[in-house]
Amino acid sequence: QRLAPTLPAAIEGQDVVLEGRVAELPRRSGGGWSFDFDVHRAWHGGAPLSLPPRIALGWYPDDADDGLAAGLSGTMAVPRGGEVWRLTARLRQPRGLMNPHGFDVERAWFERGVRAVGTVRLSRAETPRRSTTR
Q1: N or C: which end of the chain has fewer CB within 10 A?
Q2: pTM (2 decimals)?
Q3: Residues linked to residue 129 through DSSP beta bridges, in sequence order
Q4: In Å, how far are 11, 34, 93, 133, 134 from 90, measured between CA atoms?
């Protein structure tokens, strides 16, 4: 049952619009933030999409598309635990490096119920924003 929710292969590497709740306190990660996200609704190309209920996201404001880094990173609020957001993300299957003596990130994701991982995409088309939907 835990393996059943999975990211559709056709969606991997594609941008999707997500609406959902930040499931935990975001953690500082490199030049951005990482957090688990509980998906309430999702769309791809304007059509509704069925995704795993929990995904792990990385949010890197300085990696903005369309040359928006300076404009967005200074003005964008960091998501907080429990907030509802609407954002665009590029998703992939949860795969980690195979190092027999290192941290097993795939196992950690599996234990937390994460069945997809991705990066928040920053662009003029869909700027991440807090949602009023609960």
Answers
A1: N
A2: 0.74
A3: 86
A4: 9, 14, 11, 22, 23
Q: How many CA atoms lie within 13 A of 23 on its CB side?
A: 17
Spatial contact of 32 and 107, defined as CB atoms under 8 Å apart: no
What phi and psi values does residue 109 have, to the nearest 5 degrees? Answer: -65, -45
What is the C-alpha separation between 64 and 61, in angstroms, rounded? 6
User: For every one of its 134 residues, what pLDDT tens digit does the chain have, with 9 covering 90 and above?
Assistant: 656 667 777 888 889 999 999 998 998 877 788 899 999 999 998 899 988 888 989 898 765 544 444 444 444 567 889 999 999 999 987 776 667 777 776 777 677 777 788 989 876 556 677 776 55
